[in-house]
Design a protein that fits this description.
The complex is a heterotrimer. Chain B is mainly alpha-helical. Chain B has 13 helices and 4 strands. In chain B, helix 2 crosses helix 13. Chain C is of the alpha+beta class. Chain C is elongated. Chain C starts with a strand and ends in an 8-residue tail after the last strand. The chains are: A mainly alpha, B mainly alpha, C alpha+beta.
Chain lengths: 298, 294, 362
């Protein structure tokens, strides 16, 4: 009887499923299958020596990873990397969107400039950042020189390398957040601001009590997706410092890449790393999504 | 902020405005500074990064002998079997198709998630987030294998389909949020007026969610236009290259053609700006429906 | 409580004036309605009093203070918007408390005032709900609650009832009037619905294209409209207008409308003799036009083309040539379509308007 009613409900929702179907099929084939494949590989010994014939080797790859003393550092790096990036990027994007939503002249001109980091291929812009961080010729050190400050070894000093790549990545990220928030701010009716004006809320109080609560869902989505993307963001960490010096700026994905393509060509270990990264993201992602009601209906 | 009244210029207002502009100007400068280097390199003769310019104000690189040679080389770029014109065409076809496909698929999905209740709704929505949790680099190999089996390697579809699917994570949520913020009363009013669900969708929901549709289109465009990783694996004939592939071919193990590379990067950025300018109009319509709402 | 004085206020948007040299004094405790068709400038005027728009020229006083440069929040006013503008992310309680919270009132006082306002508007059970869970009528009361909770000097209302269904609108009208009388706050109310204006107003100001046409108590504006526009706008069904020339036969004056003519009431002769031979517009309300089946001298014959049964009375629509005339009759008057009936247009309540200036002569 329960089965019958479940089938009933499913049948009634036929068209809903239909609408999602094409997207779902895409998802199934291009994401879930590779995902499954990857899980499988991570339990094998597929590498340059065993490209076509490989065999299941159980948890060997995983124990290899976990027993690596560097592993803890890499996890730490990745988590710090994520938090240090997402919060400023979202905050900057939000601030810019709020300012551009207020009475300011030349909005369109400012916007064109502000999306430049996003519009240019990051490969070249990150190389430029690398150049700017150069110990001898980089612009940043030249700037410090003007003020009589000693040059900083951005790329060679562990303490500075991390902030260096974070700054570059924030530069890449805020335009996108700005765009998303600008869209959300459009949906707040002007009348609410007028009512708030009359009620006594102006300036930052209006922002605090009206604007920000109303775009809260967007902020949450920005934090969520931003975190997921940053966690797995390859370019910024790799191109500027290649994970160095040592493993100061190595995060999960750069390590995975190194293992897969950087000499050892050990795909199975890379796959194992990817799986671990996924698990790291899955549970917090699930909790966060449920708690914040991102998937709730209107 | 918006809507605050009392018009007269007070000291407070002037200071506020000055601060806003100051901040915006600083951010604008920060945004374009690295790109100035790209611009400078593009106009500097020679293919190295380190010489050929002097500094304006100490920090702005200006080429000593500006030249348009690099831009010309880009347009004349050729590899056996492929020319710049080919690659431009390929990129355009793939990107435009991706945008269309993405919009065509995320709109109904977003609609279903917003307006309909059905078993597994929450789970399905969450599952669209899963792809992002997976480091992209590693999924490329299995994706390649699938397409190899389907015989779609080295074809437009081999790129269009993955790019489209890649856009889902964000786009479905954006569209769901946009549809959420259109009050159901409007749907109901349309139904009473005799409109079928489809017509209500077309004539009411879509016009009111244009800013979000613009965002989704922009997103799909960006994901496709600048992608290197997937295209590199999927497109093997030189004639099928997309612009990013041509761009990165300028970096060989022995030598990097920085000048031409910079010029080409700039050329590739132009359509992005054009698209953004077009969409800007839609992104800021002031209609009562906007982007993401949970 | 305060008076509001609008002096020579003009508002121009991009070279087209929305409000032209408008002056109006509203007494303390008065319920003044700004009435007019869309685009007449009534909402603009209201918004200028609120401080949401600045006058291009002129002064606005609330109480004794000049408020032109005063921010809305410092004018001690409250506004009810047409769409209510309730904060969707706050509960009803927090919506009501918000203006008080912004003024940093102590918590106990806030609770006290919120409960009081909620009780007055009978929305106490709704305090923990959110706006999207409420019906239109409930939302409207919350909007009102937010306005009264601060006990401001002036209430400003922008067509607050227009989103309600007809029955609820009528009901709420009466409640609103009672509420205002009880609280005694000066109120400026904007509407395009003349019936609403008539019911609510102590005085009504009719506006057209940025200019006040007439101000006065509803009864006065109804009985003595100062021009054709006011005469035609106020009252339902709309006043009948007939163009004609004033002629005389002996001591009697008549209106010659070309196809037909009818005598004018004796009481009007003295004022109208100077207009002898001139074209005028004659206005007469349906309730002042009697109609009969009998052919009567000095009545005008019309052909019936429709009738409206209102339940307690009937409005008969007749046509003579190109002229339509509406008359009020009892419900059992037979008005068959196409039949001929005779309408009496002679009445001491008739109005005569100058053809050029459209101002009332009688």
């Amino acid at each position: 009887m329960i089965l019958a009613s479940v089938l009933e409900r499913l049948k009634a929702s036929k068209t809903s499923y239909l609408y999602i179907l094409p997207a779902l099929i895409g998802l199934l084939f291009l994401v879930l299958y590779p995902f499954a494949y990857d899980i499988y590989i991570s339990f094998t010994n597929m590498n340059i020596g065993h490209i076509r014939e490989f065999s299941l080797i159980g948890f060997t790859n995983f124990s290899y990873i976990f027993s690596d003393p560097d592993f803890i550092v890499i996890v730490e790096n990745t988590v710090v990397w994520t938090v240090a990036n997402v919060i400023p990027t979202v905050a900057l994007g939000l601030l810019l969107a709020l300012i551009l939503n207020s009475k300011v002249r030349g909005k369109n001109v400012y916007r064109m400039f502000l999306i430049v980091p996003w519009a240019m291929p990051s490969f070249i812009t990150l190389l430029i950042w690398k150049g700017m961080y150069d110990l001898q010729y980089g612009v940043f050190n030249k700037f410090l020189e003007q003020f009589g400050v000693a040059p900083i070894n951005w790329l060679g000093d562990c303490h500075w390398a991390f902030p260096a790549i974070v700054i570059a990545n924030i530069w890449l990220g805020y335009p996108f957040m700005m765009i998303i928030f600008s869209g959300a701010l459009q949906s707040i009716p002007t009348e609410l601001y007028e009512a708030a004006s009359i009620d006594g809320a102006v300036g930052y109080r209006q922002m605090l009590h009206i604007t920000i609560p109303l775009i809260r869902p967007t902020i949450i989505l920005g934090l969520l997706l931003g975190s997921i993307w940053t966690f797995n963001n390859f370019n910024s960490a790799y191109l500027i410092t290649a994970g160095g010096p040592g493993i100061c700026t190595t995060i999960f994905i750069t390590q995975a890449y190194n293992l897969a393509f950087g000499g050892l060509l050990n795909f199975s270990v890379a796959a194992a790393y990817a799986l671990i990264a996924f698990v790291f993201l899955f549970f917090p992602g699930l909790l966060w999504t449920r708690y914040m009601g991102v998937t709730k209906s209107s | 902020m918006k809507g605050s009244a009392g018009g007269r210029w007070t000291v407070g207002k002037v200071v506020q405005s000055a601060l806003k502009h100051a901040f915006l100007i600083i951010m604008a400068v920060i945004s374009i500074y690295p790109v100035l280097w790209v611009v400078s390199t593009a106009f500097t003769p020679g293919e190295t990064l380190a010489t050929g310019w002097h500094f304006l104000l100490g920090f702005v690189p200006i080429p000593d002998h500006p030249t348009l040679d690099h831009f010309a080389s880009v347009l004349n770029l050729q590899v056996t079997g492929g020319t710049f014109a080919d690659w431009l065409r390929n990129s355009l076809v793939i990107t435009v198709s991706t945008v269309l496909a993405s919009v065509a698929l995320t709109l109904p999905a977003g609609y279903a998630f917003s307006r309909r209740v059905f078993p597994g709704r929450g789970a399905l929505m969450f599952s669209f987030l899963l792809p992002t949790m997976f480091p992209g680099v590693v999924t490329i190999i299995p994706q390649f294998l699938i397409f190899a089996t389907l015989g779609l390697v080295n074809s437009y579809l081999g790129c269009i389909i993955p790019y489209t699917v890649g856009s889902f994570a964000l786009s479905i949520f954006i569209m769901k949020g946009a549809f959420d913020s259109v009050p159901r009363d409007l749907d109901e009013a349309a139904t009473i007026d005799g409109a079928s669900e489809f017509r209500a969708f077309w004539q009411i929901l879509i016009p009111l969610t244009l800013p979000s549709i613009a965002t989704v289109s922009l997103w799909a465009f960006m994901g496709s236009w600048l992608d290197f990783a997937l295209a590199h694996v999927m497109l093997q004939s030189n004639s099928l290259w997309t612009l990013p592939l041509a761009l990165y071919s300028l970096i060989t193990p022995t030598y990097t053609y920085y000048g031409t590379f910079s010029a080409m990067s700039l050329i590739m950025a132009v359509p992005v700006f054009i698209v953004f300018m077009i969409f800007q109009k839609y992104l800021v319509t002031g209609l009562t429906s906007g982007s993401v709402k949970g | 409580m305060a008076r509001v004085s609008i002096q020579n206020v003009t508002k121009v948007y991009k070279a087209s004036p929305a409000v032209k040299d408008l002056s109006l004094d509203i007494a303390d405790g008065e319920f003044l309605v700004l009435l007019g068709p869309s685009g007449c400038g009534k909402t603009t005027t209201l918004r200028m009093v609120a401080g949401l728009e600045r006058p291009t020229d002129g002064s606005i006083y609330i109480g004794e203070s000049l408020v032109n440069d005063v921010h809305p929040k410092d004018r001690d006013i409250a506004m009810v918007f047409q769409s209510y503008a309730l904060y969707p992310h706050m509960t009803v309680h927090d919506n009501l408390a918000f203006p008080l919270k912004m003024r940093k009132e102590p918590k106990e006082k806030i609770e006290e005032k919120v409960s009081k306002a909620a009780a007055t508007l009978e929305i106490t059970e709704l305090l923990q709900r959110r706006p999207r869970e409420l019906s239109g009528g409930q939302r409207q009361r919350v909007a009102l609650g937010r306005a009264i909770v601060r006990n401001p000097k002036v209430f400003l209302m922008d067509e607050p009832l227009s989103n309600l269904d007809a029955k609820l609108r009528v009901q709420t009208r009466v409640e609103l009037k009672n509420l205002q009388k009880r609280i005694g706050t000066t109120t400026i109310y904007v509407t395009h619905d003349q019936a609403e204006a008539m019911t609510l107003a102590d005085r009504v100001a009719i506006m057209k294209q940025g200019v006040i046409q007439q101000v006065g108590p509803p009864a006065q504006v109804y009985a003595h409209p100062s021009n054709k526009f006011v005469a035609g706008f106020v009252g339902s069904p709309a006043m009948n207008f007939l163009e004609g020339v004033i002629t005389s036969s002996g001591s009697e004056l008549s209106l010659n409308c070309g196809d037909f003519s009818f005598p004018l009431d004796q009481s009007q002769s003295s004022s109208l003799t100077r207009l002898l031979g001139k074209k005028v517009t004659y206005g007469i309300r349906a309730e002042d036009v009697s109609v009969t089946q009998q052919s009567t001298e000095n009545y005008v014959e019309v052909s019936v083309f429709g009738s409206e049964q209102m339940g307690s009375e009937q409005f008969v629509h007749g046509k003579r040539g190109k002229q339509d005339i509406v008359a009020r009759a009892s419900t059992n008057f037979r008005a068959d379509i196409g039949s001929s009936v005779w309408m009496n247009l002679t009445s001491p309540n008739g109005h005569v308007f100058d053809s050029a200036s459209e101002e009332a002569v009688v």
